[in-house]
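## retry 2 of 3
previous attempt timed out at serialization; input unchanged, resubmitting
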Amino acid sequence: MLEIIIGIFSIYTLLKVYTSVMQIGYVSDMKKQDAVLLSAAKYMVAGNYAIAKERLSIVEAFIEYILFLLWALGGFAYLQRVVGIDDGIVSDLLFLFGFFAVGYIVTLPLDIYRVFKLDKSFHFTKTTPKLYIIDQLKSIAIFIIVGGLGFGLLSYIISNFSNWWLWSFIVVFLFLVLVNMLYPTLIAPLFNKFKPLEDSALQADIEKILKEVGLNSDGIFTIDASKRDARLNAYFGGLGKSKRVVLFDTLLEKLSKSEILAVLGHELGHYSHKDVFKNIALMGLFLFVVFWVVGNLPQSLFTELGVVANGGAKIALIMLLLPIFSFAYMPIMGLMSRHNEYEADKFGAKIGGKENLINALLKLVSENKAFPYSHPIYIFFYYTHPPVIERLKELGYDEQKREDSVILGFLNDA
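## retry succeeded, writing output
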């Protein structure tokens, strides 16, 4: 059984690398074409950034594969011998924290490179070493506290229930729903400063469109996203009474009021179409499949791994195999998500005006240096949003006509 799993993980790794290689080749070719949506200079920068990201992804894929082999071919057995199996939940947690710690330490240099070399060189990140360290320490603390409680509960379930995989699925699913509800009010403020929107006119307009679609909000806030990143964004966070409108300060700086309302109209489209609940249902189906498959793997697999099939080993195995399940499930999620994005664009155009949404998307592409093109296989596996050039076409955008009107306006002014 172990040989089969290693073979599947090998195929998964090769598919990831192949997809990245195809994306690099495709973007390299498209870079030579005339620039679209972006100025010639930004078009080239966006292409270079897309290629650099995929090169790093290839390195990450190989490191992930090496780590997988190390764990599967003796790493789990060694770690279990070190922590022991006599203390039940305690030894399970020590095993799991050891497993996660190794992964964190191995991949930390890549993350540092991404933030301080790759993103810095393309003028995306504004994160300082001090802020990065603080963020890491906060994330570790949250993981130890929340993860300790969650993994401890799963360890107990695995040790005391024969159909542990079903009860574990239910607990994890409810936990993730709870995190979505609490994230805007409890977790996100640990990393960013939230403050009520100061622009009273914009706030009144936002509250008006919220009322039109029947959405109650916990408030309209801005966050200091610019201290870490130059990209533009906005979102509706939370579920139930914890829903809040969150605007990045970068968005307020770069977009006009009408364009911001169009972007929020897009986000409101997701709520109006119940996309949040559709995504939760898909997430639930995904988790059910993962726990069902791992819960029905033969006990002989753990013998091949050299470990006792306790809670720690089973949870670690789920985490080790999770990338395979995610990669296989992403096309399904992506297909539905891309459809939802088109529908949300229609809603945003209706709420905020088609031209305003088009202008907002053009600014987002320019400021975020998003390369307009991607290889079809890359879109198939990774894109949750349609390529922005396709979204613009659906909204009726015609770049040639716009360029002609700009030139005509310039000649008339002259």
